[in-house]
Amino acid sequence: MSRLAEIVADLAAEHAEIDRMIRDLPPEAWDRPTHAPGWAVRDQVAHLAFFDEQAALSLRDPEGFRANARAMRGGDPTEPAYLSKGRAMAPAELLAWWREASSALVRAGTTASEEGRVPWYGPDMSPTSSFTARLMECWSHGLDIEDVIEHERPRTERLRHVAFISYRTRAYAYSVRGMTMPAAEVRVELTGPNGEQWAHGPEAAPDRISGPAEDFCMVCTQRRHVADTDLVIEGEAAAEWMSIAQAFAGPPGQGRQPGQFRPHP
């Protein structure tokens, strides 16, 4: 199995977990606030539906995607059109939108080439990176929902994809803020959900980050403040990175405040 095929299959599995989490939600739960300021559960689902649609479009019609991206930049940044669309839908209708968008993206992935580049809201990416980014978004927005409803998704080895893209976007976190990244390399040593050991970066690097892979992914997707995790941070370069880490495309995110969540018991 190619790396792209593996990631597409894992994305489909993440979609299945989201489906199990939201398909039986009572109507009032769709309007429950999440920890993303101003966003309810329905907004998280609408976000996933819209950007899965756009990811599929970027594969089959790059110029059409670029036109949509330009139009989006000219719209209301506080309430994108996709949020208004999702807020006008009944829960069953919104669920159907997300299901069709996510399924269409997976179908596009099964026939996509691993070669070339596809456009996105940040730098252009390889198709493999594009699907890795969609898996990261599915996992992180799913976490926003999971945090406020009575459901716990199983932790799986699929988190390795989120850890990988989180490590690879260190330079992006600096560039999107107009900052200069330190020359110092950072070693990342993580423990996966089932005890797997995942490492990135030079083994001899003095700056180091170690601890649960989920904690690293939550910090890099800005779902937890580093103070609310069990990560061990060594060195100024590592500490600075964890203070601005951002694995997703777009302007600098607000992140979470220390004390919003408790570290693992």
Explain this structure to me?
With about 260 residues, the protein is α+β, with helices and mostly antiparallel strands. The protein folds into two domains: about 5-145, dinb family like domain (Four Helix Bundle (Hemerythrin (Met), subunit A)), CATH 1.20.120.450; about 160-245, Nonspecific Lipid-transfer Protein, Chain A (2-Layer Sandwich), CATH 3.30.1050. Helix content is about 50%, strand content about 5%. It contains ten helices and four strands. Strands 2-1-3-4 form a four-stranded mixed beta sheet. Helix 1 runs antiparallel to helix 5 (about 90-110), helix 6 packs across helix 7 and helix 7 packs across helix 9 (about 215-220). The longest helix has 21 residues, at about 90-110. The radius of gyration is 18 Å and the shape is globular. The mean pLDDT is about 95.
Helices and strands in order, then pairings?
Elements: H1 3-22, H2 41-60, H3 62-73, H4 81-87, H5 91-111, H6 127-146, H7 159-168, H8 170-175, E1 186-191, E2 197-200, E3 207-212, H9 213-220, E4 232-234, H10 236-244
Parallel strand pairs: 1-3
Antiparallel strand pairs: 1-2, 3-4
Provide a short characterization of the protein structure:
The chain contains ten helices and four strands. The protein has 265 residues and is α+β, with helices and mostly antiparallel strands. It folds into two domains: 144 residues, dinb family like domain (Four Helix Bundle (Hemerythrin (Met), subunit A)); 86 residues, Nonspecific Lipid-transfer Protein, Chain A (2-Layer Sandwich).
